[in-house]
Every structure is written in structure tokens, then in C-alpha cells.
Amino acid sequence: MSHPATQTDGAPQPPLTPSEDKQWAFLSHCGGILGCVPSYFIRKYVAPRGRFTAQESLEALNFTLPPTLLAAALNVLALVFVFFNPQIATIFSMLALLVWIFLTVFSVIGAVQVNKGQPFRYALNLRWLK
User: Fold this and answer.
1) Which residues, in sequence order, are bridge partners of residue 6?
2) How far is it, in rounded angstroms, from Cα 126 to Cα 13?
3) Torsion angle of the four alpha carbons 35, 76, 100, 41, in this order, in degrees rounded to the nearest 10
4) Phi/psi zone of residue 95: left (φ > 0), alpha (ψ -120 to 50 degrees), beta?
5) How far is CA 126 from CA 35, 56, 76, 129, in A?
6) Cα 38 to Cα 19: distance, rounded to the nearest angstrom
7) Which of 57, 87, 94, 113 could form a disulfide with 28 if both were Cys (CB 3.0 to 4.6 A apart)?
8) What would the pLDDT profile of 78-120 be if each residue is shown by its tens digit?
9) 39-72: per-residue pLDDT in tens?
10) CA–CA separation, 31 and 99 (whole Å)
């Protein structure tokens, strides 16, 4: 990300310390439990201040974006079908739950690895964003 991180008054913020950099990288992966939103905001607002955070927030965002979109679509389908066929709505809800479990498990694995100070690469990652 090319723009410098700025405070609300427009002044540049200092670079992250090594421990802060590792902490924000860790939070990027942990945020996968909530979908792609945490890694997006960390990527947008914190990543310009730390190289490890930039690297890991991008990896986490690329990993969490497709399953988050899939889970959202499955939940919308469940809401629509609940009025027409509750059994099908239940299937969509259960599929969304499985997607969330998948995200949670792999996000925690990534967070543990990054918390050790080591970069993490998800095996199943489309890496759409650069």
C-alpha cells in the first residue's frame, strides 16, 4: 500500500515496533473468525506502518474473502428459503456454519504460526488481491 498511514489530523504515524507488527499480523489472522472485515481494516489502516502486518493482513484477507462471500450468500439463501421450504433453508444454514468452522480453524492455525513470528501461507488461498 503506497499511502502513508496518517492520524486523524493528517500527520504521519510512526512505524510499528517489532512486537506491534507481530501483534497486528496475529490479529489479521484471528480476525478470520469474523470473516474478511478485520483483515480488510488492518490492511487498510495499519499495514502501511509494518512490513509483517502488511504481508500477513494481505494473506489473511485473500484467504477470508471468498469464504466470507460464500457464507453471506448461503445465509441470504437460507433467509429466502425459510419462507418456501424450511428444510432447504436449514441445509443452507448448515453449509454456512461449515464455512464459518472452516474459516475459524484455519484462521486460528494461521494466527498461532504468526504469533511465533513466522509467516503463514494458507494452502487453499486464491490470492486475488495483491
Assistant:
1) 12
2) 32
3) 0
4) alpha
5) 16, 15, 23, 9
6) 19
7) 57
8) 999 999 999 999 999 999 999 999 999 999 999 999 999 999 9
9) 999 999 999 999 999 999 999 999 999 999 999 9
10) 15
